[in-house]
Amino acid sequence: MELILDLEPGTAGRTAAVYRALRSAVLDGRIPAGHRLPSTRVLAADLGVSRGTVAGAYERLVAEGFLTARVGAGTFVTAGAPRPSAVARRTPAGPLRPHAGWTLTPEPASGAVPAPRYDFRTGIPDARLFPFDTWRRLVSAELRLGANGPGTYAEPSGHPALRAALARYLGYAPSGSATPPHVVVTNGTPARPRPDRPRAAAPR
User: Fold this and answer.
1) Torsion of CA 161, 166, 169, 174, to 10 degrees
2) Residue spans with biased composition (Basic and acidic residues) (predicted)?
């Protein structure tokens, strides 16, 4: 059995080359129907390729109906393998014609793609539910208020209104009173009692 191989670099290219050579030999009649092919080990040694390369070509030809693998007997050319007379060349198909029941949608002008009626993409909220008018009004009002000093830091002691509210709250405590200049708002977390610290017992 003579095979003409055009080996390409890489395992996939070699497998395809062995496949094409065997398929061409079957179609040309150089390997007759019912002929037993050599084992993958023997053919791989003759061609100078790996056994997996030949095995991959055999498996593809078996899947396409050119070869038949028999357990314990070997691999044979299928009796009903297609021949050149039965292998018709594919002619380019003509233009697709619409079905009578189809409704054709005209293509948009200038390449614009019309927006779908329902957008099922994930992570995209429905923009119709967002209050754009209210958002635009609030943003405009905030920009007008901060237009005189943009980019400046706020009061380092804390927001004046918050300091005034804290001063009023401290005024209700019996320990004394405080004024907003005496209150400083800082970052932090409230202290929690240690679990090992004993708590005072409630009076009986």
Assistant:
1) -140
2) 193-204
- Tens of pLDDT, residue by residue over 164-175, are 999 888 888 776
Q: Which two tokens stand for residue 128?
A: 């119709």
Q: How far is CA 134 from CA 129, 141, 142, 196, in A?
A: 12, 11, 12, 53
Other Cβ atoms closer than 10 A to 101: 5
- Contact between 64 and 101 under an 8 Å Cβ cutoff? The reply is no
Q: Which domains does the chain have, with CATH numbers?
A: 11-77 (1.10.10.10), 156-185 (no CATH)
* pTM attached to this predicted model: 0.40
pLDDT in tens, 80-95: 666 554 444 444 555 6
Closest to 31 measured CA to CA, from 22, 18, 43, 40? 22
